Amino acid sequence: MGETTVELLGFDTTNPSSSTQPPTHVIVQAGVGSLAGAIVEGLQQLFGTSIKVIVVEPTHADAFFQSSCSSDGSPKSASGDLSTIMAGLACREPNPLAWNILKDCTDCFVTCPDAVAAKGMRLLANPLGQDPRIISGESGAVPLGLLVELCTNPLLQELKETLQLNSSSRLFMINTEGDTDPESNQAICRK
Q1: Total tally of structural domains belonging to the chain
Q2: Which pLDDT band holds residue 179 (cuts at 50, 70, 90)?
Q3: Beta-sheet strand order (sheet of 171-173)
């Protein structure tokens, strides 16, 4: 499954040396985790296990974070009430197959408040220079919002250093959601 997913994303799985340089970091959002598991498994099959993996989910839908804290390594339910603007990630239980992939290869499970997703949406909608404008939904924009938080929030400096995020990092993120709620999107991006 992972190799097919990675091929669809434009990486040449038959000749990895012909691909662009591999990413150093993957920031991927997780609802039930199926996409995250497929992406991570495929990239690791192609490029090895040196890629730092960061899985992000909403604060109130934190099943993977809770599972990562589990002493027995089993998947756990989200601790919150699933209330979030990231509706596509508001999932109570992780996919057990995805958990089996992600539990062993994720460097960091992170939960984010809605404001982080909103920040990602605004950045994508209002790009710098000649970068294209991207209209993203909340669930799709949270990886970028998290990256910005990691790079700019002094309270996250230690985590940034632990993850070895720096100017040489090559990041891989996927926007998984378009404009699913135009009213909400406009309200968030106007702020």
Answers
A1: 1
A2: confident
A3: 108-112, 52-58, 25-29, 171-173
